[in-house]
Model the fold of this input.
Amino acid sequence: MVVAPLDRKLLRDLWRLRGQALAIALIVASGVAVLVMSLSAMQALDDSSEAYYERFGFAEVFGSLKRAPERVGRRIADLEGVQVVDLRVVRFAVLDMPELQEPVIGRLVSLPDRGPPLLNRLALAAGRLPDLARSDEVVVAEPFAEAHDLHPGDRFGALLNGRRRSLEVVGIALSPEFVYAIGPGTLMPDPQHYGVLWMRHRTLAAAFDLEGAFNDVALTLYPGVAPKAVLPAVDDILEPFGGVGAYARKDQISHWFLANEIEQLETLARILPTIFLLVAAFLTNMVLARLVFMERAEIGLLKAFGYGNGVVVWHYAKMVIALSLLGLVIGWGAGFWLGYWLTNVYSQMFRFPELVFQPSIDIYAISLAVSVGASLIGVVSAARYAGGLPPAEAMRPAQPPVFRHGAWSGPRLLDWIDQPTRIILRQVFRKPLRSLLTSLGLAASVGLLVVSMQWLDALDYMVEQYFHDQQREDMTLAFADPQPEKVTREAAELPGVLAVEPARSALVRFLHGHREHRGALTGIAPDSALTVLTDADGRAVRVPAEGLLLSDVLADKLAVTPGDVVQVRMLEGRRREISVPVSAVFESVIGTPAYVSLAALNRALEEHRTVNVLQLVIDEGEQAALYQRLRGLASIGSVTLKRAATDMFDETIGETMLVMVSFYLAFACTMAFGMVYNNLRIALSERGRELATLRVLGFRPGEISYMLFGEAALLVLPGLPVGCLLGWALAQLMAASFATELFRVPVVIEPSTYGLAVVIALAAMVPSVLLVQGRLTRLDLIAVLKTRE
Amino acid sequence: MRGMMACTVMGTHDAGRPATLSGRGLTKVYHTGTVEIHALRGVDVELYDGELNVLVGPSGSGKSTLLNILGGLDRPTEGEVLFRGKPLGEREADITRFRREHVGFVFQFYNLIASLTAEENVALVTEIADHPLRPRDALALVGLGERLRAFPAELSGGEQQRVAIARAIAKQPELLLCDEPTGALDSTTGVMVLRAIDQVNRELGTTTALITHNRSIEGMADRVLRFADGRIVEVVENAERCSPEELSW
Done:
């Protein structure tokens, strides 16, 4: 194969510029890696869930109610647009897992008496479905089985509606309904303390006195029918039976988390690669501009020989394409590996029968297009310069660069500045755009460092604020049904209980104008010591005797401020609707909580002093005894241990975050290094002659280093605070795009994070300084001075 | 040629005078790939105090190599350089100090700092020198007292070269080494540059060595060193120096 002379020149140029080319390629690679990682993990989740939902009949509409006779299901099935209806019994139970002291909560879901369910079918990993004739057989969710080492044939105890039962595991399965299986009041799957169990309808109904009835419904719709069209009719049918409002798949908790994760990956794929590729484009431009300038004689010669402008421009464009292809290939490799890793992490949280990681060709094509495209942006101005050079002009030596008499040449300002410093200042201000972009590029790397490390700060803050500042209980007991207030006193008598506060949580619909929100309203004692809320200024906010306390997210959603009146429709009891003024708004990072006084909520529900939630402060020393007693309490629907929740949070999210953050740190450092290295190399190339001159004049190596690195420092220094600011802004942008009703990662950046980001960025620059310093010491004085620039 | 013939008297070499700089047995061998190039083949040379020496010879005859070695820009393969009778030493720091304190260089390509004005280019050197001239005085000496605030891009080639000379002599060095200072200039401009060098040599007594391809310039020298094939083949002493105005080419 014959390589054209120009292509041979291209290869040699690339080899000569290998350090700089590699630095740029690595920045392209970082961008591509994040892109491929996010898109491939996103695709794995998206494709796997879609296939799973399709194959196992994930329902499109869900509803729960107190109790309705089975014939009511017929009316739902008759609704226009409804395809399949699955009537179920769903209840909670306290499980007795022998190896665990603390109570474990099981969510019991009924299967039809014969065969598999019509909807939300189980993907059996082992065993079989329960036999209708055997009332003690259950299928358990796979993560729960793994956490407790359960296999078909194993038995464990459970308290079903007050009756102790021994259940036999006959199957282990997954369900599209519980891809992300979280217990009541928690955010993370905790298979140690929470699991889903399936039993035959007749068995479960009998255990909970729901024979011939159902308390949960799932349905699918005919293609093209929007859930919105069906929901009101379903609500109308279920309301007399204690329906608390049907909801579409998009609000189903497991699906919601999954969809949210996919959305976050999409945001990630948009924001971060853009930054990397823009920086790479800028560096490409800088390097190429210098190369074209130095090669203007060759360019003139080529043109004199009759090569067209197109050939010259294409020659340099090819060089950039080669460079981004190198970055692309590295990025593909790293991105594939990262995507695989991330998908593996997801497979611990999101449970699919099969989580397929198989990045499609599209992902590679997209990353190819954006990385090469972005680099070519960097070619435009240099190519224009090369194309515009007339052959004769190109072959004349360059005139000394023109410096104008401006602020930096006036005598007064400069009297106290020595000549080397003047050189630095004039260089920087002679090309203000390049200087600005260099500073911004460095700022981008500092910004990336800040934004990646702030995730750890934000997570700490979230845990601190939600789990420690606002919720000061150690344990939350939720009852399946409202209880008389005296359970508070009874709970206080339990061993190890130091304090108890009652609460009543009710499902309501908040209405304000045309805005509405369906969610929980919690009644607590005005003098609650365990629920401590603060407003945006950090001032404590108390629950008033009359009036509503809304979380900031909910207030925003309803567009209300303190003083406005909100309609609150109870979705329980006699479904009264009351008007309540908003007395204050408090900060919240998780959920959309709303509080009123316990008495006011009891009145609205027309109940006499009832509670359904107890918050406990416990003595860890007597935990065992307390747990023992709780296992025997029939009325308990769920037990949430704060420590288990925070541990889980730290373990799963914290660890994953740490790994992610370290990758981003590596990418940001690559950027800082590449930025400074290219800047110094170009400065050395532009300034080599001057620096050699100064050495000849008797300047010491240290003194000329000052001129080279002083200029870099002048560009780096403003980049540091700007980078911190950029990090803050990026954090705001990310937080805003990641914010959901369920939780919002706050923008919390500790001062030390800024400091650390700056130190890391500076440390990443050190190798580039050392590499260039080496070249500076080897500067060939004679060769430089004897040649024309 | 007319000027040179008119004012040159051939003389002989006097070894009794004090030398600013001496080279002893200087040899320089470059290795390029498998080829060895003997740029200098055992040169002995003396630059006497206050003398203006012109080095002539064909390309590759070793003039520039010798000048670079004498000025501490390059090291000889063998032999040594003595400044006022003392060896320059081996350490980079010593050689840098030698250049900083005692030597001024002028090159064919002026090598001015583009971002500094004429005055600042000179100040660059005076700031690090012990007993410098004032930059404006150094520029006045080369006839540029009026162009202090001009940037290099605003100066003609001859003016840029004179700034380079002012910069080289502003620290009042004992030695001024000029490598083809008029190589890139036309005759009229070249003469102005030579006048500046001549004036510095006469007024400040700076020992000067000047490389040229241009034999017309030989007339302004005290001594002419002729190079061929890495050796000094002839030393011609002018009994009387021409003034640069009398030269032309």
About this structure: Residues 61 and 229 of chain B are 5 Å apart (CA to CA). The first helix of chain B runs from residue 2 to 7. Chain B touches chain A through 38 residues (CB under 8 Å).
